Amino acid sequence: MVFKRRSPRSFLHWLKNLAYPDGGWQRAGSYVWHRLRRLPDSPERIAKGIAAGVFVSFTPLFGLHFLAAASLAWVLRGNILAALLGTFFGNPFTFPLIVVSAMETGSLILGRGHMATPRRVMRGFKNVWTEIGDNLTALVTPTGFNWDQTRDFLADVFLPYMLGGMVLGSVVGVAAYFVSLPIIRAYRARRARKLQQRFERARQKAEKTATDGRRRK
To answer: pTM for the whole thing?
Structure first.
């Protein structure tokens, strides 16, 4: 399997790697790019998968990025593994910029003022999950239900974030497709030339060995 590990990670280790992978982000980026180049699929399908993953990384669907990227790649007939790897475009270094730009763009589309602060977005998500937990508790307690935080979040955060993210994600996703496609093609062509040269050297060596053997006879 492509992603199988020799020893499974603990949950705490997995959580730590979300913020800072083993070996640092530079090594993680090199690993992702290495995987993308060697995926057993056509360059076009791999590039479509990358575009799908990059697009989804601009949306506020936290926790669902892998599922959304895989679904979009399937619709676009792209490579699903490439889509999963493409979601790493969204990481702790890029998310602040993604959040601000998506919120600003969405607010502009909706005709609203400046709303872009990563802290506000994260606080909105936190409040929603807290409210969901409280309402689940209300199922078995006398306390009533309250969805005010969720309503405010959907109107003030999720909607502008989603609209802006879809616009920017489309632009950056298309750019990722046209940037990655020639790079993958060039890598495949260079790899094919190296394999051909290796095969040619092996053939010449075999012919030389056979010729030397006949001369000794």
So the answer is: 0.74
